[in-house]
Amino acid sequence: QVQLVESGGGLVQPGGSLRLSCAASGFTFSTSSMAWFRQAPGKERELVASIAAVGGSTIHADSVKGRFTISRDNAKKTVYLQMNSLKSEDTAVYYCNARRFFWGQGIQVTVSS
What we know:
4-stranded antiparallel β-sheet; mainly beta; 113 residues
């Protein structure tokens, strides 16, 4: 079955960095678009970044452009989200997504001093 397992979340101070990882299994990773979403308390889930299956083109939400970078390693079947210059408003549960259909369980990222 499809599994998406996120790791790398936690508590970080404003201005700090974290790298989220999502290990995938149960489907053909190399031909699947991947994405990261997030959901803050009381807010709807929103797209943070996505990366295409072929060519690796990326899209980043305006709120994270220049701070976050999505990437993928097809050999490791893993997608990453490098998050720099974190702000308190980045606090949310972050979800890995495959093909805009399959979801990970989510991982908490808290930005606080």
